[in-house]
Amino acid sequence: MKNFFTLLFCACMSLNLSAQEKTLVSQPFENIKDITSLVLGAPDLTQVHLEDLAREKNGELYRIGANIATDINPNYTGSWKINNDGARTWQLRVKAEGAEALSFLFSKFELFGQSTLEIRNMEGYIVHKPMTQEDVLSHRMQNAALCFGDDLVLTITEPANTQASEILIDRIVYNYRSTGNPNTSKINESDPCEVNVNCSPVGDSWQDEKDGVARIYCVTGNMAGWCTGSLINNTEQDCKPYFLTALHCGVTSSASNMNQWRFYFRYESPNCNNPNTAGSLDDHYITGCIRLADSDDGGGETGSDFLLVKLGNNNNETTVVNTLKSSSFSAYWNGWKAASSSTQGGAGIHHPAGDIKKISTFNGSTQSTSWGSAGGSHWQMSWSSNSNGHGVTEGGSSGSPLFNNSGLIIGTLTGGSSYCTNQTSPDLYGKMSYHWTSNGTANNERLKPWLDPESSNVTTLNGSSDPCSGTGPGPGPNDCDLQTNNILKVSLLTDDYAPETYLEITNSNGDVIWAEGNENVAGNFATGQENPTADPTNALESLTQYNWDVSLPDADCYTFAIYDYYGDGLGASQWNGTDGNLQLKNNANTTIFTISAADFGGSESITVENTDGGTTGIDYVSDGQVVIYPNPAQNEIKVDASNSTKEFKTVYVTDITGKILSESSLNKNGITTIDLATYASGVYHLRMVSASETMVKQFIKN
Question: What is the C-alpha to C-alpha distance for residues 260 and 127, in angstroms, rounded to an integer?
Answer without folding.
Answer: 18
